[in-house]
Amino acid sequence: MLSGPGVPVNNKLLPVFVAVVLGGLSIVGIRLYVERIQKNYEIQQVPIPVLVASRDLAAGKPLTPDDIETQNFPRDVIERAFRKTYIADRTTVINAKLVTPIAAGQVLQTYHFATPRRDRRLVFEKEYRAVTIPVTAVSGVAGLLKPGDYVDVVATTSFSETRDAAKKTLAVTRTLLKNVNVLATDTVIDPNDADSAEGYATVTLRLRPLDVNRVLFSLHNGAAIHLAYVQAGVAETPSKDPVTADGLYNEIAREIRGG
Rounded to whole angstroms, how far apart are CA atoms 137 and 142? Predict the structure, then answer.
């Protein structure tokens, strides 16, 4: 197909030409996709060194160099079966004490060994208290908090009140406490501890005694507690921020009316 001054264009061939070009691009894209999959597969099949027991080992026995040997396994097999618990560096387990018996040929894993006791004392001012609350991935900022961070404590709860002989239940969400210091996530008190990246089920907060009572009272009465991460350096500003169904409805109604 040619085009230009004085050269007729065959419009019937245009769809064929476009189809051929698109077909060629599709083939190239599929080929690149297949090559990427093949490369990833080859990487996963590369053997990696893993420590195994060279003989049956009893619990309580410190490991010697003769107790362990290195074997190679496909990366994909090891990472699927043992995730991050397998051990490759023998210097980390020599003289380490086993807490469970190990059979000959068994892959050594981190939980097979006693963890050195850490100094986990909490340090904070005498006028404060440490209190631990349960959290989930949702209420605990998706596991992203570290000791030293600051959070707001937000509570959602219900109150019953009687007006004109009628009993009414009021649901409200409000910031219970602001700029609260996180002392620990589970038993991690060091923000640089690698364990802090593994998620947590509890958070320990530094609170004044009255605030401890407010949090525990809210939890006892079924309040849903959420932690809201506060950027470093944000000053605490007193404010009234309760949100109720009526208040939220009035706010939306004003927006609809353009007020």
Answer: 4
